[in-house]
Write a structure and sequence with these properties.
DNA-binding; 0% strand; Arc Repressor Mutant, subunit A; 2 domains; mainly alpha; TetR/AcrR family transcriptional regulator C-terminal domain-containing protein (chains A, B); Tet_transcr_reg_TetR-rel_C_sf (chains A, B); Homeodomain-like_sf (chains A, B); flat; homodimer; Tetracycline Repressor, domain 2; transcription regulation (chains A, B)
Chain lengths: 231, 231
DNA sequence: ACCTGAACACCGTTCAAGT
DNA sequence: ACCTGAACACCGTTCAAGT
């Protein structure tokens, strides 16, 4: 009897098949997202990457939503929170933190979309919340307003990033966003002073302006609004 | 040879099989959404409802995103725009219009989620845009600010509704939202004055308050902010 | 306890072929 | 032009069975 000649060989066919673990799964998911995009971070595709079947992942992750939430929290580790402890105007520093958060989500808009629907509660997210609250407190925003302002600010940032998500099932090329924009632009051009006077009057101005400036203006609007609006 | 005995019978087995048309497809999609929810408004399920195969729908609708956009525009027909031409404070009337829009989306949060990603450009949507711009103009908001304010207001309303969307692939029962909330509440309770002082200080206040009041406050924050923030 | 094969119940979209 | 059957290439999740 020759001793099991296959078992040792098959073990060496792939570089390594490390034991599954939640952190390993999440790390692989992050890698997969960076290389192929969030739309490929599915239970099945991820299992394939980990050399196992999809069912195995359910031991460590409740479902796809939880997986995406874990990926998001991992990513949030690279939000720049240093402005919190830097000298300078509190509003400028708050906008800096929020901009860092938004930039990060812009790179992964699908994740922003998840965050909008599945309320995050990971450690990194809590760090971000703490940072925003600290700056609002420094600015003298009363606690009751700060609680709600926090949501407003993060929701604005998250939604703005989510708007750039590829639509589910869209072809990889994704001219789909440009098509939407063209359709809206055509509709605006189609407005006349008779039918839709406001639209006709504003015209191109309605669609103009770089996203960056709109984002910054939005943050300022929210901060000014919060300072002028008691609960 | 007996003459095709099956053909006439099969024609009468179902009440009627009307010819396909874009408006018929959209109308059926709206019905289907009201009876089974947006998650069931898929090309395949809709085709089944129309007694045909999914491929047939692609003659009238480019893809699923366009189908959902058409359903949304149909729904937008019931936004109450009468406050535009009513006497009274312009801000109150604007908030009334926006609240009507938001209430509508709250009933179909999945649609709000689509609207966030696929910019609407339907007739009903343009009517809403025109209404909001008319009220901003009445309030003396300069055109350049009004253009951006429009986006801010509609995005806030849409995102707030989208937050209540059921997560993709969640079980029908959907205790999933409550679970998220519990997780966040637990995380907030876990904050101490040492680790996350701001979070600990605000505590329950952070999660308190009815959605309705938060929404109304949010609209006021945006309006006050817009009035105080030049571009 | 952890892991898995296999199944269940679905998806969107395309395309060659028919009428 | 309009419509379709069939296929391609996927999904999430569960469950009984194995180790």
């Amino acid at each position: 009897m020759t001793a099991h000649p296959d078992a040792p060989r098959s073990r060496r066919e792939r570089p390594a098949k490390p034991a599954l673990s939640r952190s390993g799964i999440v790390a692989t998911a992050v890698e997969l997202m960076r290389s192929e995009g969030l739309q490929r971070v599915t239970m099945r595709r991820l299992a394939q990457e980990l050399d196992t079947g999809p069912a195995s992942l359910y031991v460590y992750v409740r479902n796809t939503a939880e997986l995406h939430a874990a990926v998001l929290d991992d990513l949030l580790g690279s939000v720049d929170l240093t402005p919190v402890t830097t000298p300078g105007d509190w509003q400028d520093r708050l906008v800096a933190v929020l901009t860092s958060y938004t930039d990060l989500l812009f790179a992964h808009p699908g994740l922003a979309q998840s965050a909008l629907v599945a309320r995050p509660s990971g450690e990194r997210y809590l760090d971000l919340v703490e940072a925003v609250l600290a700056l609002l407190a420094e600015g003298g925003v009363p606690g009751d307003r700060a609680s709600w302002a926090l949501d407003l600010l993060l929701q604005f940032a998250t939604a703005t990033a989510a708007e750039h998500a590829p639509r589910a099932g869209a072809a990889s090329g994704d001219g789909t966003r440009a098509e939407d924009w063209d359709a809206l632009a055509a509709a605006v051009r189609g407005a006349t002073a008779d039918t839709r006077p406001q639209l006709a009057a504003l015209g191109a101005d309605l669609l103009a302006g770089p996203g960056e400036a709109r984002l910054a203006w939005g943050f300022r609007v929210l901060l000014n609004g919060v300072l002028h609006t008691p609960r």
